[in-house]
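## retry 2 of 3
previous attempt timed out at serialization; input unchanged, resubmitting
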Amino acid sequence: MNKAIENMSTDEKLRLMEALWESLSREEARLESPPWHKEALLETVVRHNAGKELQIDWDVAKRELRNRAECELLPNLLPKVGRAGGSRGRRAAGFQ
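## retry succeeded, writing output
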């Protein structure tokens, strides 16, 4: 792994990741999806049309994904209480 990235704090890494994502998002017209994306989307449409897939608002979906990530991933990423370096909360890691 890149030494500069290894030396970054979690907050700095998250901010860098967000900046990269924002930059890539501006170029999305040039990015080509892999073939399996089309297959996955078609499968979702079939499930939706059969009443097996519910449509939800994008903001709600993002909020649910963030909550899920916080519950599943953050405990493993953030320092544990009592360890060298202390403990940090979600806000210190860049999560609102």
